[in-house]
Design goal:
With 337 residues, the chain is an alpha/beta fold. It has two domains: 4-150 and 239-277, Bacterial extracellular solute-binding protein, family 7 (D-Maltodextrin-Binding Protein, domain 2, 3-Layer(aba) Sandwich), CATH 3.40.190.170; 153-236 and 280-334, D-Maltodextrin-Binding Protein, domain 2. Helices cover 47% and strands 19% of the residues. The chain has 17 helices and nine strands. Strands 1, 2, 3, 4, 5, 6, 7, 8 and 9 form a nine-stranded mixed β-sheet that branches. Helix 2 (13-20) packs across helix 13 (254-288) and helix 4 (44-58) packs antiparallel against helix 13. The protein starts with a helix and ends with a helix.
C-alpha cells in the first residue's frame, strides 16, 4: 500500500527508472536485518515473512528480509536506536520506543483512543500515518507502514476484575511510559515501570501482581503460567511501526524503494489478518491454559473511561497539540461527528 509521505520521498527516481526498462533490471541484491522484541510465533512474524516473500518474488530473489525475534538485537528502544545509527537496517517496534524522539507517536498511547478495528485501520493507512511518516526522516528513519500489536488487556494473579474498584492496590507492570503510568494511577493501581524482558520473572516471583498486553503477546510470553485472571479491557491499542534507516533508504534506488513500500503494505495486510485471528485463538488457548476470563460491563467500562479521561489533558504536552488535534479530527470524521 502506497502512502503519500513515502511517495514524496521517492521523488522523480521512480519515473526515471520505470522509463529505463524492466523493474528486475534495476534491482540489486539486498538482505535487510529486521529486529523485533516478540517471539517468532507472534503475529508480527507474519508481516516480516509476508513482506520478505513479496520482496523476493517481485525482485527475482534479489531482495529479502532476515528477521530477528525475542529482542535478539536489543529491546524495542535499543533496536530503534540501532536503526537510527545504521547498525541495523530495520525494526518493527512499539510506538513507545519512538515517542521519546517523535511526539506524534505518543498519541497512540492515550487510553481508549480507538473504538474498533475499523477505526484503527483507517488511521494507520490515512492522513495521520502520512503526518507521522513525514516527521521520521529528521530522526534518521523512514516509516514504511504501521502494523499492530493490538488492543491491550489486563491480567493479574489476585482476583477477577469485574469492577473498576478491583484495580485498587494492584501492582501492575506497565511500559516505561508516562501516559501508561498516569492511566493506571487513575485506576487506583500501583503502576510499576519495567522492561518487557523482566516481566515474566516479576510475575512469577509476585514482585508485581499483574500486567497488560495484547492477547497474542500474553499467550506467546506464557504469562498464563504465572497469572490466573484475564480481563478483556481493550483499554489501549499498540501499533508497531515498520522503520528503516534513512541512510539505507537513501542508498536504495527508486525501484527498490517503490518495492519496499509496496511489500510493506502487503506485509501489513498479512500481519493484520494474522493478528486479528490470533486474538480469538489466544483467548481460547488462555482459557484452556487455566486462565479465568472476564469482561467489564458497559456501565463499568464507562466508569473506567471517565476515570482515565483526564489523562488526555495531562498528556497533551508530550503528545503535542497539533498531533492531538489532527488525530481527534480524523476520528471525529470517521465517527460522523
Amino acid at each position: 500500500m502506497k502512502h503519500s509521505a513515502i511517495a514524496a520521498l521517492l521523488g522523480t527516481a521512480v519515473l526515471a527508472t520505470a522509463l529505463a526498462g524492466p523493474v528486475s533490471a534495476e534491482i540489486r541484491a539486498h538482505t535487510l536485518k529486521v529486529s523485533n522484541g516478540a517471539a517468532e510465533d507472534h503475529p508480527v512474524s507474519a508481516g516480516v515473512k509476508g513482506m520478505s516473500a513479496c520482496l523476493e518474488e517481485k525482485s527475482g530473489g534479489k531482495m529479502k528480509l532476515r528477521g530477528f525475534y525475542n529482542g535478539e538485537l536489543g529491546n524495542d528502544a535499543e533496536a530503534t536506536q540501532s536503526v537510527r545509527s545504521g547498525s541495523i537496517e530495520m525494526v518493527v517496534t512499539g510506538a513507545a520506543a519512538i515517542g521519546g524522539i517523535e511526539p506524534a507517536m505518543n498519541t497512540f498511547e492515550l487510553p481508549f483512543l480507538f473504538a474498533s478495528n475499523e477505526e484503527v485501520d483507517a488511521i494507520m493507512t490515512g492522513p495521520y500515518f502520512d503526518h507521522v511518516a513525514a516527521k521520521m526522516p529528521e530522526h534518521g528513519l523512514v516509516m514504511l507502514s504501521i502494523w499492530e500489536n493490538g488492543f491491550r488487556n489486563a491480567t493479574n494473579s489476585k482476583l477477577p476484575i469485574t469492577r473498576v474498584e478491583d484495580f485498587s492496590g494492584l501492582n501492575f507492570r506497565v511500559m516505561q511510559n508516562p501516559i501508561f503510568l498516569d492511566t493506571f494511577r487513575r485506576l487506583g493501581a500501583n503502576p510499576v515501570p519495567m522492561a518487557f524482558s523482566e516481566v515474566f520473572t516479576a510475575l512469577e516471583t509476585k514482585a508485581v501482581d499483574g500486567q497488560e498486553n495484547p492477547l497474542p503477546l500474553i499467550l506467546a510470553s506464557r504469562f498464563h503460567e504465572v497469572q490466573k485472571y484475564l480481563t478483556l479491557t481493550r483499554h489501549a491499542y499498540s501499533p508497531t511501526p515498520v522503520l528503516i534507516n534513512k541512510a539505507k533508504w537513501d542508498s536504495l534506488n527508486g525501484e527498490e524503494q517503490a518495492l519496499m513500500t509496496e511489500c510493506a503494505g502487503i506485509g501489513r495486510e498479512q500481519q493484520i489478518a494474522r493478528s486479528r485471528a490470533a486474538v480469538d485463538e489466544a483467548t481460547e488457548e488462555l482459557k484452556a491454559g487455566g486462565m479465568e476470563v472476564s469482561e467489564l460491563s458497559a456501565e463499568e467500562l464507562d466508569k473506567l473511561r471517565e476515570l482515565v479521561a483526564p489523562v488526555y489533558e495531562t498528556a497533551l504536552p508530550s503528545v503535542g497539540e497539533e498531533n492531538f488535534d489532527l488525530m481527534m479530527a480524523e476520528l471525529n470524521k470517521l465517527r460522523g461527528n
